[in-house]
Amino acid sequence: MSADVTIVLMPKWDSREPSCATAYVCQYARSLGRRVQYLDYNIRLFDLCRRLGLGEFWTESRYHQAWLHGDMRFLSAFVDVEEIEGDVVGFSLTATNRELTLMTARRIRERFPRKKIIFGGYAVYYESDLRGIDPSLADAICRGEGEHTLREVLARDFRNLEEVPGLYLPHGAGWRLTAPRPLSENLDEIPWPTFEETDLPLYEVPDLPLMGSRGCIGRCVFCNDRHRTPGFRTRSAAHQADELAWLKERYDTDFFIYNDPLMNGSVRALEEKADEILRRGIRVKYGGNLMAHRGMKPELFRKLRRSGLTVAIVGLESGSTHTLRGMNKYHTAESGAAFIRECHNAGIRVELNIILGFPTETEEHFQETLRFMRDNRDCIDCVVSATTFQVGNSDMWRRRGEFGIEMAEGASTFDWRTRDGGNTFEIRADRLRRFTEEMAGMGLAPGRTDREIEQKSPETGTRFLKAYAAALEEGGPLFAGERAGADDRQRRARAEIRRVHLLKACRKLGLLDPLLRVKGALRGGGA
């Protein structure tokens, strides 16, 4: 039976675990009685690249700029728009899949002009995010939380959308917002995802992402997430426990990672969930983002650990109380140290996020952060992320004059300086380098940094084409769904189809000459 709605996730998304956002959209559409098709091109193309020895395109940060700037566009050659069943096609946009998404949407428009296309996601919230998106590529863009907006759009069959709040609609050469949509207050009314549409074995770890709450109680001046989802709302303990029990039984998942901006925005709700897990005897492990909350007693940490909380990702940001106050963080260096020590003493793994180069941060404040890390090393398991301070769509952006921040017109969010010259990109990059080196010496090397932010993207197209052409000579790599049960004859036939498809796509993308040179070199014909 064909689908009514097709949800598409283009690369690059994560290679370790599936998208929680698209899983929510799929389940919600099903709850409306729609037949849903999910095309996870992210993981399918990752699997292809991984088998070609190029999985690093996803896993190494030095390729970040390549994804942002569209240098990975050659991968669109492997998107078969003919397999799209739905009359409605929804795309989830991130910063790193935007270019491939727009290319694919254009191909759908050209091949199936009657299909309705809707965009949504983290990367299309602010009006500034929509610059460069051709209004002909989509019938609407969902702004923010999408469940109720999607319900109304589908119920109206894309007619009279001006009356639907929460949408950007084409307007001349750009986009215009209909009206802001009120946030969903009762999150228990939204069905949790079942991931039945997801090809889980292709992901690298057997974890599943969840959302127990939305929004945050913090008011950090650098954060733009709280503007996307203002206020804090949480699902009930029973609703979350039902989800954990069902997914555990269905997939025998070992670990659940909560994608909430803040798991302990409501300490009471967090404890109620722990109580419900323990009461039902649900044997799970889970983790997520926590703030260094002063309202959590030592016995609560121990209860949380018994319920399965094994990983606390703490937004420490700095070890300097002066810097933390400037950031408008709720904790001080002292209370932050006490919080991570309570986590450690309860047997909870502590992973820290660090931000270096806040506008008021001096060398002395930076040294305080280094001392904090040395003094509390025994309670810290890793630094999961270390970045330089960026000025984006946040309170800091509106207050940049107050902090003496100067930026060139159109400059990137990381490329700023203070008027007095006391804080420049070079100073911040040097602090990040010294921090990273010291953490490596302590066995706490950050898992993610932005040290390569100015690095030119490595060559990707020619490397991929060379690897793929070599594989074609051996019968051709297939997508995961095509490999099962394919005999030699089928493999040869499909490889030939892919050759033709690749040649056509490369000609359209301006990559035909590089491909032919690569194939000639592989056959001994020279470059």
Strand residue percentage: 15-25%
Q: Tell me the Rg in angstroms.
A: 24 Å
For the record, the CATH class of the largest domain is Alpha Beta
Helix content: 25-40%
Overall morphology: globular
Helical run tally: 19
The assigned structural class equals alpha/beta
Q: CATH homologous superfamily name of the largest domain?
A: tm_1862 like domain
Separation, N- and C-terminal Cα atoms? 49 Å
Low-confidence runs of at least 5 consecutive residues? 480-486, 521-527
Please list the strands of the largest sheet in the order they lie side by side: 2-1-3-4-5-6-7
CATH architecture of the largest domain: Alpha-Beta Horseshoe
Biggest sheet layout:
7 strands, mixed
Beta strand count: 18
Please name the CATH topology of the largest domain. Answer: pyruvate-formate lyase- activating enzyme
On the 0 to 100 scale, the average pLDDT is 88
Could you explain the architecture of this structure?
It is globular, with a radius of gyration of 24 Å. With 527 residues, it is α/β, with parallel strands linked by helices. The strands form 4 sheets. It has a 7-stranded mixed beta sheet, sandwiched between helices. Strands 8-11-12-13-14-15-18 form a 7-stranded parallel beta sheet. A two-stranded antiparallel ribbon has the order 9-10. The chain has helices at 20-31, 41-51, 56-59, 64-68, 98-111, 147-155, 225-228, 237-251, 267-280, 298-307, 321-327, 333-345, 363-375, 395-398, 425-441, 461-473, 480-483, 488-509, 512-522; strands spanning 5-9, 36-40, 88-92, 116-120, 140-142, 167-171, 174-177, 207-210, 213-215, 232-234, 255-258, 286-290, 309-317, 349-356, 382-388, 405-406, 417-418, 448-449. The protein has 3 domains: 5-175, Cobalamin-binding domain (Rossmann fold); 205-449, pyruvate-formate lyase- activating enzyme, CATH 3.80.30.20; 461-522, no CATH class. Helix 8 crosses helix 9, helix 9 packs across helix 10 (298-307) and helix 16 (461-473) packs across helix 19 (512-522).
